[in-house]
Amino acid sequence: MPHARVNGIELAYRETGRGPALILGHGLCLDGEMYLEAAERLAADWRVIRLDFRGHGESTKPRGALSLEDLADDVAALADALGLERFAYGGLSMGGMVGRRLALRHPGRLLALVLMDTAAEPEPQRELFEGSQGGEEPAEAVSANGSQLVDGEDQPLLEDGEELADSEQPQ
User: Fold this and answer.
1) CA atoms of 6 and 136, how far apart (whole Å)
2) Which residues 6+ apart lie within 8 Å of 41 measured at CB?
3) What's the DSSP call for residue 165?
4) Predicted confidence (pLDDT) per residue in 125-147, tens digit
5) Higher-scoring residue by pLDDT: 140, 1
6) For residues 147 and 130, what is the distance between their CA atoms, to the nearest angstrom?
7) pLDDT at residue number 124
């Protein structure tokens, strides 16, 4: 799988098709494989790029805080690395939240924006997993504590020392 060096990390992506570029952003704890069937159907008309956000899939799992703004800047940097001046972006759930930030931070880059099953209102900064302690994988925290989100003040998506578990895709 190809990787692009962007913003100090290795960002994994998959690419198929020809035509205008369409970058697809996945949901939390998933990766670009979630769009495999859609990419196959879109490839006749689009250059489809399915990325793994940092901390997901085959991309670097950095230590430290992670924000939706970081992910949006990674998308723009991936587009730069691939020689794309303008592109369409589609995002599901967390990928849609990234798309909103992408549109605000890099508005001249977008040909189109598709937001699927995502929040349309400003969300408060949140701690992802209540009860997740340093070193505990978020997936383990969900199993032990449920997926309840808790409001916080100026909290990054991941606390220092936490990282996302690799997604498990059906074969």
Assistant:
1) 27
2) none
3) P
4) 544 433 434 444 444 444 444 43
5) 1
6) 8
7) 59
The helix/strand count (H/E) of the chain reads as 4, 8
Pairing assessment for the beta strands 150-151 and 126-127 based on DSSP bridges: antiparallel
Sort 59 into a burial class: Cβ within 10 Å, 0-12 / 13-18 / 19+: buried
Of the candidates 17, 168, 30, 163, the one whose C-alpha atom is nearest the C-alpha of residue 96 is: 30
pLDDT tens-digit readout, 44-60? 999 999 999 999 999 99
Nearest to residue 25, comparing CAs of 51, 55, 4?
51
Computed over every residue of the chain, the mean pLDDT equals 80
Sheet with 47-51: strands ordered across: 3-6, 9-16, 47-51, 21-25, 87-92, 110-116
Tell me the sheet residues that pair with 3.
12
| Cα(60)–Cα(92) distance, integer angstroms | 21
CA 158, CA 63: separation in Å to the nearest integer? Answer: 9
